[in-house]
Write a structure and sequence with these properties.
heterodimer, A: 353 residues, alpha+beta, Nucleotidyltransferase, domain 5, Alpha-Beta Plaits, 3 domains, four-stranded mixed sheet, 14 strands, elongated, B: 263 residues, five-stranded mixed sheet, 8 helices, 10 strands, globular
Chain lengths: 353, 263
């Protein structure tokens, strides 16, 4: 079985092709202005030389900023979930992730199955994002992929007291004009970004193991600075930039494997007066939450299972179902004609009485 | 004896020469790496214009980002104090001045004696500052005058974030490339609105609501001032030479200083 994960980021577009548990191929290219075109091109490049056609791919999941602009994707997930799932594939022990992308930065907590438990993000300001580093690399006239290494050669770091990309640029130019070594300027800027990332990390639970993902984690200078602040050795996967796309591919795999594994859940009980069950087919439930909204007794809630949102009957209600639930017939008459069965577009809900 | 006020900003340095309450001359020059040299260049220029000889007796007060680093200054004053004095010299009825400089924006609340009662300042990032507007003008290849002119034809302001100058730039580019493209006037109005929203928040924070004035280089951008007027729901006073308000305030303070000395 073949699964594809496509991550259309703000600066770079990534794709991963997965065959069961093996990465067959992967590709990274610039996002550019037209995401739809980019996503088509990305698929072509992904399949190039593999002998696999696009029709052989069983399921495709898209993620990233441009996730809705992938016409061939079967569904999409947020990049936060995708990164957690991707890093979990490499390191199941990771509980804290710092995802440093082209235009934002996120701190994520996840559990042992790669489900997100908490996250905070900065997407309001370019300080400490890939864009910031791009601008600085441009000013200093050093290729983006070398600035990390150059910064490590610093002997006396220049402190930067701003995190604004625009101000930092002017400040860097000023230092450059005064003959300050590029390495020292870079070291100062990296320090500023690292402390900003650390502040973000402090707002989630900073548990070990710790991993850094996203394109910026290829910058060794920055990784060293962050490691120094966090006091945890960050885990880096083979290509941290691909982590989101890989996560999406794993979502694709789970999605097409799981429906059969996902059971029809029955909530309720039997007694002398009859059997009272509400059954929910989790293979069908799409986690839309409409049943949660309409139930007059508030019996349903949404939970995350295997990375998907599904509805379930609240624990405390299960033993008192016939008391709390008026029953479908009565509900239709008293709740303005709206019932949980009616609003469920997937027909996943049944009542036994 | 002459009174000299020098405002060393992050982009330009302004000097004003006064004598007995009369404004004699003013000069603006680019801020160089060293505040001392920048201040000297601007002051010399202003003194020349005033027709004063090389070393007249004078009292110098500096202010602004580089104000503290000038050795020949008699005193250094806070930018807020200078803005308050400067705008009161123009019109004593003004109760708050909005100063939009190159790398910061400040709102100062003033009482009837030209003293600062409260102020709010934003200098953490480029959003809502002069550099932001300059960057946008450069991006669209327009002068401030052309921008102001175009903004008057806007129907509806384009959505542009007020939080980051870098992201705002990408947004402007995507507005231009959209199919159909967002009309230029709407984009410009969007830019003005994003700056205005920052200023508005600061005004609200300190409760500056009536008899407003603007200063700083950005005040020459009439389109922005008009947008601010609409957003704040009142007329805003634009002094003659708004760039020099802080330097003028410093010169007024220098005069006061000299009077104290005489008494």
């Amino acid at each position: 079985m073949m699964y594809a994960g496509v991550d259309i980021g703000s600066r770079a577009a990534k794709a991963v092709l997965l065959e069961d548990d093996k990465i067959i191929s992967s590709v990274i290219r610039d996002t550019g202005a037209e995401s739809v075109k980019t996503s088509r091109k990305l698929l072509e490049e992904l399949l190039e030389g593999t002998g696999i056609g696009s029709e052989d791919i069983d399921y495709t999941v898209a993620t990233g900023y441009g996730r809705v602009l992938v016409p061939y994707a079967n569904e999409n997930v947020s990049e936060i979930s995708a990164h957690a799932r991707g890093i979990n594939w490499y390191f199941p022990t990771v509980r804290t992730i710092l995802d440093m992308g082209g235009q934002d930065c996120k701190a994520i907590n996840c559990d042992g199955k790669g489900n997100v438990t908490n996250f905070v993000m900065n997407d309001k300001c370019a300080g400490g994002t890939g864009r910031f580093l791009e601008m600085i690399a441009e000013v200093l006239n050093i290729p983006l992929n070398e600035i990390g290494t150059v910064s490590l050669g610093s002997t006396s770091e220049i402190p930067f007291n701003t995190i604004c990309a625009v101000f930092a640029k002017t400040e860097a130019i000023r230092h450059l004009r005064n003959g300050v070594a590029r390495a020292d300027i870079l070291a100062g800027l990296h320090e500023a970004i690292a402390s900003r990332s650390f502040n973000l990390l402090k707002r989630v639970q900073l548990e070990s193991d710790f991993a850094i993902t996203g394109g910026i984690s290829k910058n060794s200078g920055l990784v060293a600075k962050i490691a120094g602040k966090v006091q945890l050795e960050p885990l880096l996967c083979d290509d941290p930039q691909l982590c989101g796309a890989l996560g999406a591919a794993i979502f694709a795999r789970d999605k097409s494997v799981l429906p059969s594994a996902r059971a029809k859940m029955q909530y309720g009980y039997d007694d002398g007066t009859g059997s009272y069950f509400i059954s929910l087919d989790e293979g069908l439930c799409n986690g839309c939450g409409k049943c949660v909204e309409v139930c007059p007794a508030g019996l349903f809630k949404l939970v995350q299972r295997n990375g998907y949102m599904v509805a379930e009957v609240k624990e405390e209600a299960r033993k008192r179902l016939p008391v709390l639930c008026p029953g479908i017939e009565t509900c239709r008459n008293t709740n303005g004609g709206v019932t949980c069965q009616m609003v469920c577009s997937e027909r996943a809900i049944e009542h036994s009485w | 004896m002459l009174a000299v006020g020098i405002d060393i900003g992050s982009l330009t340095t302004k000097a004003v020469v006064m004598n007995e309450g009369q404004l004699l001359a003013s000069e603006v020059s680019n801020t160089l790496d060293e505040a001392e040299t920048s201040a000297l260049v601007a002051m010399t220029g202003a003194l020349e214009k005033a027709g004063a000889d090389d070393s007249p007796e004078k009292c110098v007060i500096t202010t602004g980002a580089g104000g503290k680093a000038v050795s020949f200054a008699n005193r250094t004053k806070a930018i807020t104090t200078c803005l308050a004095r400067g705008i009161s010299w123009h019109d004593p009825a003004i109760r708050a001045v909005i100063d939009i400089g190159a790398e910061s924006s400040t709102v100062v609340k003033i009482n009837d004696r030209g003293r600062v009662t409260d102020w709010a300042n934003h200098d953490k990032c480029a959003a809502g500052t002069g550099i932001f507007l300059q960057q946008m003008a450069k991006l669209m290849k327009l002068s401030f005058e052309e921008m102001s002119e175009l903004s008057r034809n806007a129907k509806k302001g384009a959505e542009i974030t007020g939080t980051c100058a870098v992201f705002a730039e990408s947004e402007v580019i995507s507005h231009v490339h959209r199919v159909p493209p967002t009309p230029m006037p709407d984009i410009i109005l969007g830019i003005y609105l994003s700056v205005s929203s920052r200023i508005k928040t600061m005004c609200k924070r300190i409760g500056a609501g009536e008899n407003l004035a603007v200063s700083g280089g950005v005040a020459l951008n009439t389109g922005l001032v008009e947008t601010l007027e609409k957003e704040l729901g009142q007329r805003i006073f634009v002094p003659k030479d708004p760039v020099f308000v802080a330097a003028l305030g410093a010169a007024v303070l220098a005069e006061e200083e000299m009077q104290k000395g005489i008494q």
